[in-house]
Amino acid sequence: MMMRNRPDLQGSKRPRHLMAALLCGLLVSVPVVQAEIPVTRGSSVLAAADTARQSSTPEWVYTLGEGETFTGMAKTLLKSNISPTRLLRHNDIATANSLQPGTKVRIPLDWLKRQPEPAKVNAVTGQAWLISGSQGMRRPVTEQSTIRVGDELITRTGTVNVELADGSHIRVAPDSRLVFNRMTQYGKAGMVDTRLRLNQGEIHTRVKPIIQEGSRFEIETPSAVAAVRGTAFTMQTSPGKTQLQVTEGEVAFGPPGQVRYIPAGYSASVDTSGHSPMTIRKLPPAPELNPLPETVTRLPAELSWQPNPADRHQLDIFDKDSGQWLLSETVANDNFNLQSLDNGGYEIHVAALDPRGMAGIPAIKTLDVDLKARPAQPQSPATGDKLPDDMPEFSWTFQGENEIGRVEIATDENFSNVVATSEWAPENTALPSRPLQPGQYYWRVVTEAGGNSVATSKPRTLVIDGSLPPVEIISVNYLDQQVRIFWQSVESANDYRLQLSEEPGFDNIIKEATVSDTTAALRLIPGRRYFVRLKALSEGPLASRWGPGRELYLE
Questions:
Q1: Domains of the chain
Q2: By the 8 A CB rule, do 470 and 547 touch?
C-alpha cells in the first residue's frame, strides 16, 4: 500500500492588503509576476521577495545583553579572520567601552562563523536509500541515520521522516528523490541556511518559524523554487510540473526569478517549460470531524466526519511522537474504522480530495489508544486429559476485543521451562510449535492487546501418552580411578535410574542409583570391565525403558 503524507499544522494569515491582492486571482490561471530583483537557482527567493525590507548586503542585527562585552560577543560569533575592531568600524563605533546593554550591532552574514549541521532520520518505513554526497556510496536508511550536506535520499516503497538541526521536519513520500544541498548553522547566532532540491516525488514540511533575519529555508525543483519563513506545505514534482499546497503560513513560490506568495489554503502549479502561467486554486476546506474520545479503550472505533461536497477523502495516520507513517488510504465515504492500532499516541489527518485528486486542508485529530488485555478462557484439552497425539490442538475463548493470543506449554507449573509455544494470532485455536514427548505438561493461553498489555490464563495439565524414550550415553571421561559419564537429557524426565554391572546382560547389578542430573562419576577397580545403563523416570503414569549399555574399562 502506497503511503502519502499530509502536513501537520494549522493555518496562519498574511496581512489583509496582501491577502486581498491574492484573493483576486483565485480559481483562475494567473500570469507569473516578476520579483523585485531576479532570483537564480539556489539563491534566496525569500530575500528577493523581501528586498524592500532588506539592504543589498544581508546583515544580522545583534543586541548586546546584560553583562556581555562587545569583544566577547565578537569572538563568539565572528570568523577568525574578522577582528572586533573591523566590526566596530562597520558600525561607525569609535570604542567598545562606550557600548551599553541593548546596543544593536549590525553584522554582515558573511562574517559569521558557519558550520555544516547534519539532519537525522527519526522514522522510516519500507525501503529507502541514502547516497553519500562525498563518497557516492549507497546505504539503507535506518532510524537515527545521519544525513550530511550533499547526500541524496531516495525512497522506493518507503517513507522517511527527517528532522533538521533547527527542529524543522520533512516527510518524504514513496518514490521520491531529495538532495540536501546546504544545511548551515551560523555558529551560536541561531540562524540556519537550509537548501534542498526535490528532483522527483513528494515531500511534506513543517518548517520552524524563522525569527532571525538572514535565515533561509528553500526547496528547489526542476521547474520551481519555494522559500518559507515558518509554515506547513506539501510539494510534488514530476516531469513537466511542480505543485504546491500550503496549509499554514505562506510560501514564496514560482519559477526561478519569478515568485509569488501563496497563502494558507491555496495551491499553485508551475510547468517546466515556463511558457504557461502559474495556476493558483483554493484548496478544499478541512472536513468537520465528529466527536471521538481523546483516549480509545476499545477497537475498532469509528472516525467519522460531516458530509461535504467531496466524494473522496485522504486519510493518513502518523505516530504522534516520531511522525512515522502508519497508514494512508483514500476513503470513498464519510467514515473510517480504526483498528489494529497498538497502544500509544496517534495523529490522524483527514483531507477532502478535489476533482483533480489534490488533498485540501486536513482536519487533524490526536488520539491515544489504551487497550487492556484480559485473561482468555481455556477450552480444550481439559485439565488432566491424556492424549495419544504428540501435536494436540489447543482452543480457548477470548474475553476481550482486538486481542491476539498464543499457547505456552511447560514441564513445570511456574513455566520456567517452556518447551513449546504457538504463533501469536487472532485465532482461538493453535498447534504447538514442535511435537511433545510423552509426559505430563502444563499449558496456558497468553493474550496481548495494544502491543504492550499482556494477560495469562490459569494453567491446565495434560499428559501425552506413550513411554519415555531410552537414555543414550553420549560420552565417557576417564581420570585416575574415576570414570565420569554423560547422557542425553529426556524432556519429560524428572530423574534418571543408573545401573552398573560386570556383565552385559545386567543380571548381576553391583550398583544402582537415582540421579537428577545428566552426568555421574563412578569409582572403578582398574583392570576390570564394567557395563552401565540408564533409564528416564517420570512422576506421571508413563512407562520407561532402559537405554543401551555402555562398556567401561579402567586400565
A1: 16-27+115-282 (2.60.120.1440), 52-111 (3.10.350.10), 295-369 (2.60.40.10), 377-464 (2.60.40.1220), 469-553 (2.60.40.10)
A2: yes
Q: Which residues are bridge partners to 513 per DSSP?
A: 498
Sign of CA dihedral 257, 261, 264, 268: negative
Pair 91, 74: CB distance under 8 Å: no
Burial of 282 from C-beta contacts in 10 A (0-12 / 13-18 / 19+): middle
Q: Are 161 and 120 in contact (CB under 8 A)?
A: no
* Per-residue model confidence as pLDDT tens for the chain (555 residues): 333 333 333 333 333 333 333 333 333 333 332 222 222 233 333 333 343 334 456 777 777 878 888 988 888 888 889 999 999 999 999 888 888 888 888 888 788 877 678 899 989 989 999 999 888 899 999 998 999 988 999 998 889 999 988 888 899 999 999 999 888 776 655 667 788 999 999 999 988 776 555 567 899 998 888 988 778 899 999 888 899 999 999 999 998 778 899 999 999 999 876 677 889 999 999 999 999 999 999 998 999 999 999 999 999 999 998 888 888 899 998 999 998 899 999 999 999 999 988 899 999 999 999 999 999 999 999 999 999 888 999 999 999 888 999 999 999 999 999 999 999 999 999 999 999 988 889 999 999 999 999 999 999 999 988 878 899 999 999 988 889 999 999 887 889 999 999 999 999 999 999 999 999 999 998 889 999 999 999 876 677 889 999 999 988
How far separated are the first and last CA of the chain, in Å rounded? Answer: 74
Cβ atoms of 330 and 314 within 8 Å: the answer is: yes
Q: Which helix or strand (DSSP H or E) is residue 70 part of?
A: helix 70-77
Joined grid coordinates for residue 346: 496517534
The SS3 assignment for 185 reads strand
Distance of alpha carbon 430 from alpha carbon 380, whole angstroms: 11
Pairing of strands 295-296, 250-254: unpaired
Query: Is the whole model's pTM more than 0.90, yes or no?
Result: no
Cα–Cα distance measured from residue 300 to residue 298, given in angstroms and rounded to the nearest whole number: 6
Alpha carbons 51 and 56: distance in angstroms, whole number = 8
Cβ–Cβ under 8 Å, residues 172 and 152: no
Q: 51 — phi, psi (to 5°)?
A: -55, -35
Helix, strand, or coil here: 111?
helix
On whether the CB atoms of residues 162 and 153 are closer than 8 A, the answer is yes
Q: What contacts 333, CB < 8 A, 6 or more positions away? A: none
Distance CA 278, CA 29 (A): 6
Give the C-alpha separation, 86 to 67, whole Å: 22
- 419-425 contacts: CB < 8 A, separation 24 or more? 419/491, 422/394, 424/448
Q: Would you call 174 exposed, middle or buried from its count of C-beta atoms within 10 A (0-12, 13-18, 19+)? A: buried
Query: Which residues touch 15 (CB under 8 Å, ≥6 apart)?
Result: none
